[in-house]
Design a protein that fits this description.
It is a single chain. With 305 residues, this protein is mainly α. It has helices spanning 4-16, 26-38, 62-74, 93-105, 115-128, 134-144, 153-166, 172-182, 193-206, 223-230, 238-245, 255-275, 279-288, and strands at 22-24, 147-148, 151-152, 234-236. The chain is built from 13 helices and four strands. α3 crosses α7, α3 (62-74) packs antiparallel against α9 (193-206) and α4 crosses α5 (115-128).
């Protein structure tokens, strides 16, 4: 049976072998990758740990770190209502993680954290702040603490993962399979954006699974294709360009959306192969420069990204 990463690569191949809407420019990818060799990306200062808060003393508590990023990844999606400039109360990834850190810290650094209570506080705060898709977010969070008989799936996964990290024996394919079978919300996206993000963020934050992370595709969202197009690595056909210029919504799961995301994943793998940087580092570099580009990104209402 194929593993989950192989399935994503098969989907990528399927959507990019005879594209209708999005084409990859190998020449631009070669040029960009070569420029990165001449001027290393590390000089741009974007490869340090994520600039997002952690619970107090979490750095000393491996399971708490894993819980934090598992919870964050489960709801790290869709921060806008309709058009991208409609964002009530500054809803965004940074604010989401600030609320999560506050929920953890409400117990104080010396007390035992009840994950169930953390999730309850966190859910309430996101609702108060009018985060979009709040019912989906709460559903995804509740999956993490769902019990089967006497076992809580989240604690089962976190304990397994922490032990693997401690023994330097993380198998991302096995961990990914356990993740998406125990928490089906992560599996709703055929390109597994939020699941892949979990592993990439932990690698950036803690330096874990240095070799295994090279297998993991980018967490394909809407900012990365915008940047790849800006840099000339992917090109849109006129029909798709017109949808962007007119601020038209692109349906979730449509051929257009799947080609955009699949082409982004493949373009980043090609950049990785040619430059030597892993795909997560390339994803972070492109994302960190997103505000330099004022081009429109594609509008899809989805909890996939």
């Amino acid at each position: 049976m194929n593993n989950s990463i192989d399935i994503v690569w098969s989907l990528v191949d399927e959507f990019t072998k005879k594209p209708k809407y999005v084409r990859i420019s190998e020449g631009c990818i070669d040029t960009l990758a070569n420029s990165w060799k001449e001027t290393p990306l590390i000089d741009n200062g974007v490869f340090g740990p994520p600039s997002i808060p952690l619970p107090q003393d979490a750095i000393e508590k491996m399971e708490r770190i894993i819980w934090y990023d598992l919870i964050a990844s489960s709801v790290n999606y869709q921060y806008w209502y309709g058009k991208s400039n409609v964002r009530p109360n500054d809803a965004g990834a940074t604010k989401m993680e600030t609320l999560l850190a506050e929920a953890f810290n409400s117990y104080g650094s010396t007390q035992i954290v009840s994950i169930e209570h953390v999730i309850s506080i966190f859910s309430a705060r996101m609702a108060e702040e009018r985060f979009p898709a709040i019912s989906d977010r709460i559903r995804h969070l509740e999956e993490l603490i769902r019990k089967d008989s006497t076992l809580t799936r989240g604690f089962d996964f976190v304990s397994y993962f922490a032990m693997a990290v401690e023994e330097n024996a993380v198998d991302i394919n096995n961990s990914l399979r356990m993740m998406i079978t125990n928490f089906p919300g992560f599996a709703e996206d055929q390109f597994l954006k939020r699941a892949f993000l979990f592993f990439h963020i932990l690698h950036r934050r803690m330096g874990w699974f240095k070799e295994e992370i090279k297998k993991v595709p980018i967490p394909a969202d809407y900012q990365i294709p915008k940047m790849l197009r800006w840099l000339g690595c992917i090109e849109y056909e006129n029909e798709l360009k017109n949808l962007l210029y007119d601020n038209k919504f692109i349906p979730n799961g449509s051929l257009i959306e799947c080609e955009i995301r699949a082409s982004s994943i493949l373009a980043c793998r090609m950049l990785s192969d040619k430059s030597g940087y892993n795909m997560g580092a390339i994803d972070q570099y492109l994302w960190s420069r997103r505000k330099e580009c004022t081009d429109s990104f594609h509008l899809t209402v989805t909890t996939d990204y």
